[in-house]
Design a protein that fits this description.
heterotetramer; A: alpha/beta; Aspartate Aminotransferase, domain 1; Aspartate Aminotransferase, domain 2; 17 strands; globular; B: Sufe protein. Chain: A; 6 helices; 3 strands; binds pyridoxal-5'-phosphate
Chain lengths: 404, 144, 404, 144
């Protein structure tokens, strides 16, 4: 059992009040808060270890390089990569996906197809759409059901020998749906396609095992898993990372340069141009250690309890429509209330201390597929409590009564 | 009544409420009283971009050379906000509108208490109002 | 006059000992150390203000967004940009330059020429080289003199009506040369070319005024100017940023999405895909405020004194060859000692507590143009002292005597 | 003498020095004594990549089936390091070389006190030595 009070004590920001009310932070899908352990790890780095990595012969450079590479190794083990060189540090999910979409261009021809789903975040949609525009390939969109579930038979129909790449969210940031990524990867492989998984919403809430999923690429952001901003990961199967050309040029990604020729470094450095965010990588390792200390399975269980309770309470409200009612969900609930604009609810709830998000959540085509322009979204984390859900429900009822 | 006097009246009115929830309740009431735009103008042409909710704004010149604004939004708080702007500015000449300081928005705390996203919405609304004023000013000059 | 002791107290890492010796950190061109003010700013952000920016209606999101945009404005003023929207936050210099090199591709044709200099860091060389490879354009290299100076007449000869872009370091990270970027920009403009300046080594040491230089683009890294890793800036003239297509796709850079069409956001968001490094931007602002508190001119004067002293002392050593003897230099001295490998010196100096760098400093063609594979480089910052130079010289003499 | 015994001797030898500067002074002496590679092998083919300085390593089998290593580097500390490896491993059979634990590198603190760049150089040297051993092993198997 998690000791939530103890966990909450680790997060300084949760002690805040907003507009005189204790902060109820339900915007975790946008970004999570950071425990002292992570904040301190970064300060400690800058106070004791800071140096540029890899090329220095001096002591601090050695310390920083070892710490940076140890983070890579920890993260590789955490997601069950087969080798640390399969972990490329990026700024975040968006950059990870853009990296793949950019360097994959040389593998895409006009007749080819790229398959995504109707529930993708813009960051896992527009890079592929633009790749299709550049190459003439076709963007195939597998539609989710009204419940927000993907039917694997629909996927099978969408896949064929022209399919080069399948890009799909592990968890939808609007619907909360946990997608059957392992099964979809199997189907995609059977069709000869590569699979890119957008793990932005999964990494803090599910045990992620890239070996088990067997996907070629897996992307996530540090800041959505209790780690700092400005750091993220692109996992890639070695075989594929080796095949791909570099994305950016300069610094550690270079082996040797002449004006007429450049030889690139080996993995993973080939994809890490310029000075990396060492403090960010260390912060990410610390955050993963923090999670692992409790156990992702324990966390999932607890968050499921929160989800069930919140869902049950929300359903009692008149005019409530929950957007996304898949059987397998995690951490995210979107809803609308008949006759009331999401933005009005968000504004009033904020005044009552509840931080949540309204809008299309960077998944405009999905939200519009429900005939909406906007939903209210609460998104939970391990430090949220049943009591906070009660506060939220009270505030929501008050807002509704003001707006009706 | 001058724009400034109208602004002062709005500031006085909001001073009655201590609490932001009450101010919002008032804003919501005002939103419900907004002089609604003719349905036929609720098109993309009259949509103001940059707001989290959809806002339509229409303007026409009356016989005295004063601009009459009507608007609508799908969010009622947004309606309240634009209704304040309309209350202060509708029925005035383009020049008066362009000269208005709109200090009341700060005084009642609207800017401070609205996130930049919303402040941006506010900014977009003001810009659109000024755009109309400038357009009418130009038109009347050309006519002369 | 700078109070260096007070400044040193702001930098916790400088209190360290390495191998039992007080740390003498002379590797500032690789990365600078961070004052408490910057470290604390980031901690404070994560403890009190952390949120995702721009799209949230709630209080924290407002606080974070305002802080992030205030940093952009501060930085815009600091470098004399005409508008905050000309400041694009990136990971660092390398990404800033790669961004331009990537999106500039549509302006480059086979007959065109791109002009760089022989003293460029790989990060301001390989992106242009690869752009030339992709487009068939010609890479023209203006050679520096043996002293490490660029002759503007050589530049004039290299420029012609085929020149589309000139890319040049403000300060060379190997030679320390301060290049006449304003004059070169004038010449480039006369030839109808755009100018990209690599300001990585300049930002901490010179007053940077992009309005005065009149360059189209200016790139720098936070971590080389007392700010955190994982943040950097691309300044771009509005007119040019507007003309260019986006670099990465997703998140805030998007205005609206349909599966068949995407409309991009306005500047600077068009170039900031995904969740930005908000803490990093705040840290960068804090670092610039820290520098401004002393005055960049004051700092430059002090660092010049250090440079003169170190140069004078080094010249007394037998077999000493200083690489880079330009009239205008800042913060960097490279050298070799006859018959002794740079790597051996670096190793022994490290054992005596002096952190410096040996190698080709990611400017292989330049170092090789001196018939070398490696130099020893000391690079100074505002917190270094004359006493540290004495310690360094003592250690250097000892190392030389061991190796001869 | 077995490789292990040679390793022990090296460890004993380094124990004489308390201070890292003295250990380095010793390493530099050893570097100067390195059995130098024939100039004709100082080509790219025999260059070990991944070191900050250039290192050439050459290996040949003697009549007893033992490998003889010679090497050179442009940096003398690097020469010292490779001379330690050669002292421990040269004159042994491929199998003995491949079985060697090389614990002495840790014991004398070479790994810990060398930056990863240099440790990488060390790793590259060891890899190259093992590569030769494996190649000779394979060759002799094929002959049989
Ligand atoms: C499903 C999903 N994908 C991608 C992203 C983009 O992540 P980031 O902004 O950290 O790059 C997000 C976050 O908003 C997300 O929820
Ligand atoms: C002149 C110059 N340009 C570019 C860079 C690259 O900067 P970064 O690694 O921060 O991207 C450096 C830093 O090494 C440099 O010195």
């Amino acid at each position: 059992m998690l000791d939530i009070n103890q966990i909450r004590n680790d997060f300084p920001i949760l002690q805040q009040t907003v507009n005189g009310k204790p902060l109820v932070y339900f915007d975790n899908a946008a970004t999570t808060q950071k425990p002292m352990q992570v904040i301190d790890r970064m300060s400690r780095y800058y106070k004791n270890e800071n140096s540029n990595v890899h090329r220095g012969v001096h002591y601090l450079s050695q310390v920083a390089t070892e710490a940076y590479e140890a983070s890579r190794t920890y993260i590789a083990n955490y997601i069950h990569a087969s080798d640390p060189s399969e972990i490329v540090f990026t700024r975040g999910t968006t950059e990870s996906i853009n990296l793949v979409a950019s360097v994959f261009e040389s593998f895409i021809k006009e007749e080819d197809e790229i398959v995504i789903t109707s529930m993708e975040h813009h960051s896992n949609l527009v890079p592929w759409q633009q790749l299709c525009f550049r190459t003439g390939a076709r963007l195939v969109v597998v539609k989710a059901s009204v419940d927000g579930e993907l039917d694997t038979r629909e996927f099978e129909k969408a896949l064929n020998d022209k399919t080069r790449l399948v890009a799909i969210a592990h968890i939808s940031n609007v619907l909360g749906t946990i997608n059957p990524v392992k099964e979809i990867t199997r189907l995609a492989h059977a069709a000869g396609s590569v699979v890119v998984i957008d793990g932005a919403q999964a990494i803090a809430h599910l045990p992620v095992n890239v070996a088990d999923i067997d996907c070629e690429f897996y992307a996530f952001s540090g800041h959505k898993t209790y780690a700092p901003m400005g750091i993220g990961v692109l996992y890639g199967k070695k075989k594929w990372l080796e095949k791909l050309s570099p994305y950016q040029y300069g610094g550690e990604m270079i082996e040797s340069v002449r004006f007429d020729k450049t030889i690139f470094n080996s993995l993973p450095y080939k994809f890490e141009a310029g000075t990396p965010n060492v403090a960010g990588a260390l912060g990410l390792e610390e955050a993963m250690r923090y999670i692992a200390g409790f156990g992702v399975d324990e966390i999932k269980q607890y968050e499921d309890k929160l989800m069930d309770y919140a869902t049950g309470e929300l359903k009692k409200l008149e005019g409530m429509q929950i957007i996304g009612t898949a059987k397998q969900k995690a951490a995210v609930i979107s809803f609308v209330i008949e006759g009331i604009h999401a933005y009005d609810l968000g504004t009033l709830l904020d005044k009552m201390g509840v931080a949540l998000r309204t809008g299309n959540h960077c998944a405009q085509p999905l939200v519009e597929s429900y005939g909406l322009t906007s939903t209210v979204r609460i998104s939970l984390a391990m430090y949220n409590t049943l009591e906070e859900i009660d506060i939220f429900m009270g505030a929501l009822q008050k807002a509704v009564s003001m707006l009706r | 009544m001058t724009i400034q006097k109208k602004e002062n009246a709005i500031v006085e009115e909001f001073r009655l409420f201590d609490d932001w929830m009450d101010k919002y309740a008032h804003l919501i009431e005002l939103g419900k009283e907004l002089p609604l735009i003719d349905e036929k103008y609720k098109t993309n042409q009259y949509l103001i971009s940059g707001c989290q909710s959809r806002v339509w704004l229409f303007a026409e010149l009356d016989n005295d050379g004063k601009i009459i604004f009507t608007a609508d939004s799908d969010a009622v708080i947004t309606k309240g906000i634009i209704s304040l702007l309309i209350r202060a500015l509708s029925g005035h000449t383009p020049k008066e509108i362009l000269d208005a300081g709109l200090g009341f928005l700060d005084e009642i705390g609207l800017k401070e208490h609205l996130s930049p996203t919303r402040a941006n919405g506010l900014v977009s609304m003001i810009k659109q109002i000024q755009f109309y004023a400038r357009a009418f000013q130009l038109k009347s000059r050309i006519k002369k």
